[in-house]
Design brief:
This is Multicomponent Na+:H+ antiporter subunit B. It is globular and about 65 Å long. It has helices at 7-27, 31-56, 68-86, 102-113, 119-127, 129-151, 170-192, 201-219, 221-227, 230-253, 268-309. Helix 8 (201-219) crosses helix 9. It has two domains: 1-91, no CATH class; 118-310, no CATH class. The chain is mainly α and 310 residues long.
Length: 310
């Protein structure tokens, strides 16, 4: 991937690398992380990068000279990383520092305090709710930045239909008509099944976005924007963050702590369930709308550039 000058091949190899990474996580019994890596590394990332290639071109420019300062910085950073890896405890060591802190408390107390089978969701949505809120805000900020840079902050609906990237392939269109509804349905399943199995708002949002982006590639950007208008996407990106933050404020109103969902119901465990479902819904809405909005922004910017060149 580093040596390839064909950027299309690099994107395809990166998708394969994402699948390999997901298989490594499965071997380590980290199903939720594997799910995320497969959805992002082999799903949404190659689609977004292929869209970028329509703007920057397929082949990397020839290097005219070697830049020694970046090379020196990278060598120093690589040396520091390798030194840190050599000092880490052996894989699976019982006395590793990561096994002697909060992990044991999560394992022992999570069933009674949170009451859901998927302990990863308990940690991300409840115990580390502030961290997850920060990640959602980062995704929201990224979407806003892309829209401001590429579309001037006020994207408009194109007057002419955008030719779909794969519209000329009838087989892809027919297969897409069958797969897209199943992809969206599976995204909903992952969204509302994250408490009981691998999944949650991040994975569901990416899966849902892949379905919309695939629809845009097969049937045209204009048709996709009729289904999901840009104005609606901008509101949805903010709505997900608002839902997440509002759940925390609701806890304060009823006399609890911010993002401590125990006070949302008479039974603390039921309150945890309600809070987790709501904040996961906010995460899914923000992630899905942000990914689709970024894709629309790149596609619109590429179209505008091509029209100016013509």
């Amino acid at each position: 991937m580093v040596r390839a000058r064909d950027l299309f091949a690099t994107v395809m190899l990166s998708g394969i690398y994402g699948l390999l990474s997901a298989s490594f996580f499965i071997l380590m019994d980290a199903a939720d992380v594997a799910f995320t890596e497969a959805a992002v590394g082999a799903g949404i990332f190659p689609l977004l990068m292929l869209t970028v290639l329509t703007s920057v071109g397929r082949y990397e420019a020839e290097r005219r000279r070697v830049r020694y300062l970046p090379l020196f910085v990278m060598v120093v950073l690589a040396g520091a990383l390798f030194a840190a890896v050599l000092q880490m405890p052996p894989f699976g060591a019982v006395d590793a520092p990561s096994h002697g802190h909060v992990a044991q408390r999560y394992i022992q107390d999570s069933p009674a305090e949170i009451g859901i089978p998927n302990m990863v969701t308990s940690v991300l949505a409840s115990y580390r709710g502030f961290d997850t809120l920060g990640e959602v805000v980062v995704i929201f900020t990224a979407a806003v930045g892309v829209v401001v840079i590429l579309l001037g902050g006020r994207p408009k609906t194109p007057q002419q239909s955008t030719q779909a990237l794969m519209a000329e392939h009838k087989v892809l269109r027919v297969v897409g008509k069958m797969l897209i509804p199943l992809i969206l349905l599976f995204g909903l399943y992952v969204q509302f099944h994250g408490e009981y199995g691998p999944g949650g708002g991040f994975q569901a949002g990416v899966i849902f976005a892949v379905g919309i982006i695939l629809y845009a590639m097969l049937f045209g950007l204009s048709n996709a924007q009729r289904v999901v208008p840009l104005g609606v996407l901008r509101w949805l990106v903010a709505l997900g963050v608002l839902i997440y933050g509002s759940v925390g404020l609701a806890n304060l109103v009823v006399g609890g702590e911010y993002l401590n969902y125990s006070m949302l119901a008479s039974d603390p465990v039921t309150g945890q369930h309600i809070g987790i479902i709501l904040i996961e819904l906010g995460v899914g809405i923000t992630v899905a709308s942000a990914m689709v909005l970024i894709f629309f922004a790149f596609t619109r910017a590429t179209r505008s550039r091509d029209e100016l060149e013509e």
